[in-house]
Amino acid sequence: MLHSPTEPALALDTLAHGGAKAIHWVATATAMAAVIAAAGLLQPAPATGSPVTATAAAAAAGPPATAPDAHAVTYPLDCRGVPQAVTATAQGDLDGDGRPETVAAVRCDAGSGTPPHALYVLTQDRAPGAAPRVVATLLEAGRRQTVTGLTIGDRTVTASLVGYSSPAVPRYSPDTRQLAKWRWTGGKFRQELTDSRPGSV
């Protein structure tokens, strides 16, 4: 919160002679008004005494917030000893607070086959040195889907997903395709499937 500094008290010297004309008082009042206005617009910066300008105020606010680093998080994904792999990320301000979030597509790095993805939303506290953390899971790995595209736009997460219509479908031949969207509404992410088509992918 910005606080306006207290105006310094202005000491007026005793006039050398008391019989001043009206025009003298008008000139004095005009000069004093100009001094007070200037004091309100040009406040000295701390420790430097230089005026605070809009540019200096913006610089003092610091650089724009950066999105959380998706590779600096341990995800709630059980890989049974196999490393986790972040395969896609997207960044954007999803809740409108002026700070970007990161959405990460993560799967187990099995080394062969196509392990399913999970989708996580990351945020980072404002405190200096704060670590990124998972605040929402958009897609569980148990859905057995693979993320083939990931974007953020208009505060909405959009993911292209391929999957399987039944457990009998071989892992090397996904047969469903979906375009899924999640939007932050009413304090939580709401999902909508805008397209769902069976058939060879």
Please specify the SSE layout and strand pairing.
Layout: H1 22-41, H2 54-60, E1 84-92, E2 101-108, E3 118-123, E4 133-139, E5 146-153, E6 156-163, E7 176-185, E8 188-198
Antiparallel strand pairs: 1-2, 2-3, 3-4, 5-6, 6-7, 7-8
Can you characterise this structure?
- The chain is of the alpha+beta class and about 200 residues long.
- It has helices spanning about 20-40, 55-60; strands spanning about 85-90, 100-110, 120-125, 135-140, 145-155, 155-165, 175-185, 190-200.
- A hairpin with a 2-residue loop joins strand 7 (about 175-185) and strand 8.
- The longest helix is centred in the N-terminal third of the chain and has 20 residues, at about 20-40.
- The chain is globular and about 50 Å long.
- The model is unreliable at about 1-45 and about 50-60 (pLDDT under 50).
Number of helical elements: 2
Structural class: alpha+beta
Order of strands, main sheet, comes to 1-2-3-4
Residue stretches low in confidence (pLDDT < 50, at least 5 long) are 1-47, 52-60
Distance between the termini: 54 Å
Radius of gyration: 30 Å
Oligomer: single chain
Report the portion of residues in β strands. 25-35%
Largest sheet: 4 strands, antiparallel
Keywords:
alpha+beta, 2 helices, 8 strands, 13% helix, globular
Short synopsis of the structure:
By secondary structure, this protein is an alpha+beta fold. The chain is built from 2 helices and 8 strands.
